[in-house]
Amino acid sequence: MLIFGRKNGIDMTNGPYLKKLVAFALPVLLTGFLQLLYNGADLIVVGQFSSSDAQGAIQSTNALINLIINVSMGLAVGVNVAVAKHIGAKDDNAVSNVLHTGLLLAIICGVAIGAFGFAMSKTFLEMMNSAPELLPLSSLYLEIFFLGTPLNLFYNFGAAALRAKGETQKPLMYLFISGAINVVLNLLFVLVFEMSVDGVAIATVTSQGVSAVLVFVELKRTNGYCKLYLRKLRIKKQAFFEILKIGLPAGIQGSLFSISNVIIQSTINSFGKVVVTANGNAQSVEGFINISVDCVYQAALSFIGQNYGANRKDNIAVVKRDTFIMVTVLCAVLAALIIPLRRLFLAIFNTDPDIITHGELRLIINGSTYVVFGWMQIFVAYLRGLGHGLLPVIVSVMGVCVFRIFWIYVVYPLYPTLTCVYLSYPISWAITALAHFICLKVVEKRSYEKMNEEYLSRKSENLSEAA
Fold it and tell me: What percent of the chain has pLDDT over 90?
């Protein structure tokens, strides 16, 4: 069976699909797992060789860091969908315009976000009710992290373009290299130079720089529609609005998700630094399930985007079915592994019995229900792949963000326990997944009609140019 099509990308417009989806998703999954392991190395190094305060300080920044990551990944989704659609339509010039516009946009946004975040780090942490004894270390870690924002965005945008054409193995290799550098630098700065959170933060930013450079080199030396030319780095109006049509709503959605999580984190912070550390450690373990969902989500985006450009309605339905099966199996397998061994996984980060006990609660509640989040994300990918940028944002904001804020300010005061806080996650996932499913049924037919109209319009333009 032919898996890789023209110009060495995966052939996404011809089935069967399950094997191709796995071939696409597996490197993305391994990339995410490596990222979590390397991020976990930061916590393990400071937890084992520095102090528990240093570990808690890093954990207390999770919500803000996830805010930046979610915004950048949301904008990168716009690049992914636009590139995939034009590859499916075999429009190499449009692909090139999206690539160069997206990379320049990444640099501009990265510098702006990094500068603002650096200046406001301490203020943000104070607004989140961070523990006073952790605040100096937390703000130091966050300030250094923000300096790497342009590098982080450039890597995410470049990797999104590579994934859109089916190239998922090279980003995995780049992360392996940069992550290994991160671990070595962590040990060097903490053990040899006796640094604390500043050492692991510098190691993180350095490794981000390495991954950004590797993606830059790959885009420079590749042939075909995803080749980078420095002289072409400019904002093209049509490409800019294509990226923003999907990427801006996705970025806003990610930021609003994170804002609601910041509110939840603020509530968790009120339980003290033991619970803060435990919650962060559990979140790190839980991240392996989240990454599994994301790899299938990325596959769905790319495959649906290319088939949208190629006007292949039947293929899109098959991709939706197969990715739904994939995310269900992945979440079930990981939950069956993580929940029974939860104490063992948590002890990797910190052996304090109180921290482990508090961390177990989050893993049991979220780990057993993460499959619902997976279903929600497949529906979101389907909507975005079909060109709907705003609809999934509205649904997600109401079902996740607004609901969680309501939960924290109305329900939680009636039952002020950690269990009540953590229940806001699976309940919001279930509500939002159901709402997305209903929206799909409402807009699906019209989306396919629009897809056919765009295809016929492009075909007519091509015939006119040929004549």
Answer: 20
The backbone region for 90, taken as left when phi is positive above 0, alpha when psi lies in -120 to 50, beta otherwise, is left
Structure tokens that stand for 215 in this block: 């993606």
Those residues whose C-beta lies under 8 Å from the C-beta of residue 121, and which sit 6 or more positions away, are 64, 139, 142, 143, 146
* Spatial CA neighbour of 56 closest among 434, 413, 330, 355: 355
Mean pLDDT rounded to a whole number for the chain? 83
Strand partners, 10: 4
Question: Which positions ≥6 away from 417 have C-beta within 8 Å?
Answer: none
| pLDDT tens per residue across span 102-112 | 899 989 988 99
pLDDT at 26: 81
Backbone angles phi, psi at 361, to 5 degrees: -60, -45
Print the domain residue range for 125.
6-466
Whether 462 is covered by a domain: the verdict is: yes
Contacts of 35 (CB under 8 A, 6+ apart): 175, 179, 291
Q: Is 10 helix (H, G, I), strand (E, B) or coil?
A: strand
Distance CA 227, CA 230 (A): 10
Residue 160, both tokens: 């999104």
Q: Is the Cβ–Cβ distance between 247 and 79 less than 8 Å?
A: yes
The contacts of residue 438 (CB under 8 Å, 6+ apart) are: none
Residues 269 and 274: their CA atoms lie apart, in Å, by 9
Given a cut of 80, is residue 271 above it in pLDDT?
Answer: yes
Facing residues of 4 across strands?
Answer: 10
Please report, as a single letter, which amino acid is at residue 445.
Answer: K
Nearest to 386 by CA among 466, 445, 323: 445
Secondary structure E strands in 62-167: none
Quote the CA–CA distance of 125 and 2 in Å, as a whole number. Answer: 52
Taking each helix axis from N to C end, the angle separating 92-127 and 135-147, rounded to the nearest 10 degrees, works out to 160
Q: What residues form DSSP beta bridges with 287?
A: none
Tokens of 289: 């399930």
pLDDT band at residue 444, thresholds of 50, 70 and 90? Answer: confident
Confidence class for position 272, pLDDT limits 50, 70, 90: confident
Q: Tally the domains of the chain.
A: 1
**Which of 142, 148, 147 lies closest to 121 in space, CA to CA?**
142
- If residue 432 lies in a helix (H) or strand (E), which one and from where to where? helix 418-466
Q: Token pair 């290299």 is at which residue?
A: 177
Q: What is the DSSP letter of 224?
A: S
How many alpha carbons fall within 13 Å on the CB side of residue 466?
6
Q: Please say if the pLDDT value at position 63 is more than 90.
A: no
Task: Report pLDDT for 36.
Answer: 66
**Do residues 346 and 355 make contact, with C-beta atoms less than 8 angstroms apart?**
yes
User: Per residue in 229-269, pLDDT tens?
Assistant: 888 888 888 888 888 887 777 777 777 776 777 788 788 88
In a domain, 239, yes or no: yes
